[in-house]
Design goal:
Elements lengths: L16 H16 L6 H17 L1 H12 L3 H27 L2 E3 L9 E8 L2 E5 L7 H12 L3 E5 L5 H14 L5 E3 L4 H9 L4 E5 L2 H14 L3 E4 L5 E4 L5 H13 L11 E5 L3 H16 L15 H8 L6 E4 L3 E2 L4 E2 L2 E4 L16 E7 L2 H9 L6 E5 L3 H10 L4 E4 L13 E2 L5 E2 L1 E2 L2 H7 E8 L17 H4 L1
Parallel strand pairs: 3-4, 3-6, 4-5, 6-7, 8-9, 8-15, 9-14, 13-14, 15-16
Antiparallel strand pairs: 1-2, 2-20, 7-18, 10-13, 11-12, 17-19
The structure holds nicotinamide-adenine-dinucleotide.
Nicotinamide-adenine-dinucleotide binds next to helix 7 and helix 8.
GO molecular function: aldehyde dehydrogenase (NAD+) activity
Family: Belongs to the aldehyde dehydrogenase family.
Protein name: Aldehyde dehydrogenase
Length: about 475
């Protein structure tokens, strides 16, 4: 589908190296001038971004519809409204997050004061992906601005309508001296990565993450890498099958499975698989009707390349539900595959689409071993009523996030940092964690010159008493 842009302005084809160099220079000098540091500036930017999201909601919804077939409700809950909530929470707590924190001073240094002080890093580069192209560009921007940085946003070229909308709208609401959008794909990103930034915040896949980290080496720039991988969902026999199935279907088929924290596959313990598979099929019909292609609430695959990649995975098991697809419409039905083996093609890489394989494992030990033999996932889910199982999963597995009974929603809990570990990424953000990511914590020690209690420490080290 040719994307119909929400706004006619796109700079994608006219961004030159000189433009990029000039843009970065403008941002750097805005930061150097101190423009971004006052709390008042930060709050004003956040409020302006909030206004953009409210006033331009329709334009953004249309762009998301064009890029991914998202329904307005889904666009609101997972993207536009999500960022509004992030802004509101940040505005409410920012002053307290930024307040210097007193720490105690050891006796040997007393009397003196010590405190931890937040300072912005400088100019931040945010490179974002196509699957939640508003959320994943703007939620990091909220953190970068709240922490007092200048920021350059590079949206994904694979969500062209949203990219164009952001390039058009952000400069109309935000301080253009300190915030910029550069559109483009690999050439523009490559040029951007050659510039000096004070932090690079990348969301996307692990292959490009390696390129980003490699480029960061040159300027010793710290990076946050928000990546993906196969997030497992463990289901125990005691877990209510209907509720488990509905919650799995919701987490998996939102955005047609193109969610970094979507349950990638199910590990069904013991005898739980047959009933779970039946309930998954029922949940899909309940949510999207007999023909999900006609559901207003069901999205589309981003492009032909991903469509072809996904349809090639459909014969990795027995189709329990779905399986239908239409390339012209970039439609793949919500699909459940049963009887999938651990070495099936669908288990070789992150699925990132509406295909849910169910793998049977004999017991919890086998499920834990299965998870631990693979890359550390961005999220691990378990459906169980057993506190012992929850304890075991908490201590015996490693993942970016861990959620019992409900997939993907841990992202909506402001107090929980969002990030990966190992192959699923490094660093984290969302609300207070974004302040950690986009600030340096400066250690400040303050000792009066009036009374020289340090004389005991000076050479020559002779008789202590004499010098006291
Ligand atoms: P993508 O193709 O849109 O790429 C992401 C960004 O990287 C884009 O802005 C793109 O222009 C840029 N890019 C591509 N090649 C580049 C290069 N050679 N040099 C510099 N930049 C380059 O998105 P994607 O990577 O397909 O995104 C999907 C992946 O992202 C999945 O693995 C998913 O799990 C992960 N993801 C993670 C999160 C998270 O928050 N942890 C969120 C969403 C997606």
């Amino acid at each position: 589908t040719e994307a119909t842009s929400a706004s006619p302005t796109t700079t994608a084809d006219i961004v030159t190296t000189a433009d990029i160099v000039a843009t970065v220079a403008r941002l750097r000098s805005a930061f150097a001038d101190g423009r971004t540091k006052p709390l008042a500036w930060r709050r004003a930017q956040l409020r302006a971004l909030r206004r953009l999201l409210t006033e331009e909601r329709t334009a953004l919804e249309e762009a998301l519809r064009a890029d991914l077939g998202k329904s307005p409700v889904e666009s609101h809950t997972t993207e536009i409204g999500f960022v509004v909530n992030e802004i509101d929470h940040t505005l409410k707590h920012l002053a307290s997050w930024l307040r210097p924190q007193r720490v105690s001073v050891p006796m040997a240094l007393a009397p003196a004061k010590a405190r931890r002080v937040r300072e912005p890093l400088g100019t931040v580069l945010i490179i974002s992906p196509w699957n939640y192209p508003v959320n994943l560009a703007l939620a990091p921007l909220v953190g970068a601005l709240a922490a007092g940085n200048a920021a350059l946003v590079k949206p994904s070229e694979l969500a062209p309508a949203t990219s164009a909308a952001l390039a058009d709208l952000l400069p109309r609401y935000l301080d253009t001296e300190a915030v910029a959008v550069v559109e483009g794909g690999v050439p523009e990103s490559t040029t951007l990565l050659e510039q000096r930034f004070d932090h690079i915040f990348y969301t996307g896949n692990g292959a490009v993450a390696r390129i980003v980290m490699g480029a960061a080496v040159k300027h010793l720039t710290p990076v946050t890498l928000e990546l993906g991988g196969k997030s497992p969902a463990i289901v125990e026999p005691g877990a209510d099958p209907a509720t488990t199935a509905r919650r799995l279907a919701w987490g998996k088929f939102t955005n047609a499975g193109q969610t970094c924290v979507a349950p990638d596959y199910v590990l069904a313990i013991g005898e739980s698989a047959p009933e779970l598979e039946r309930e998954l099929a029922a949940a899909i019909t309940e949510m999207f009707g007999e023909d999900p292609a006609r559901s207003a609430d069901y999205g589309r695959i981003v492009n032909e390349r991903h469509f072809d990649r996904l349809t090639a995975l459909l014969d990795s098991g027995t189709v329990v539900a779905g399986g239908e697809h239409d390339r012209d419409d970039l439609y793949i039905a919500p699909t459940v595959l049963g009887g999938v083996s651990a070495d099936a093609p669908v288990m070789a890489e992150e699925i990132f689409g509406p295909i849910l394989p169910v793998i049977r494992v004999p017991d919890l030990d086998a499920a834990i071993a299965f998870v631990n033999e693979r890359d550390k996932p961005l999220a691990l889910y378990a459906f169980t009523e057993s506190e012992a199982t929850k304890r075991r999963l908490t201590t015996e597995t490693s993942s970016g996030g861990l959620a019992f009974g409900l997939p993907i929603a841990h992202l909506a809990v402001p107090g929980l940092p969002f990030g990966g570990v190992g192959e699923s990424g490094m660093g984290a953000y969302h609300s207070a964690a974004s302040i950690d990511t986009f600030s340096h914590t400066k250690s400040v020690l303050d000792k009066s010159l009036r009374l020289d209690t340090m004389r005991v420490a000076y050479a020559p080290i002779t008789d202590l008493k004499e010098r006291l």
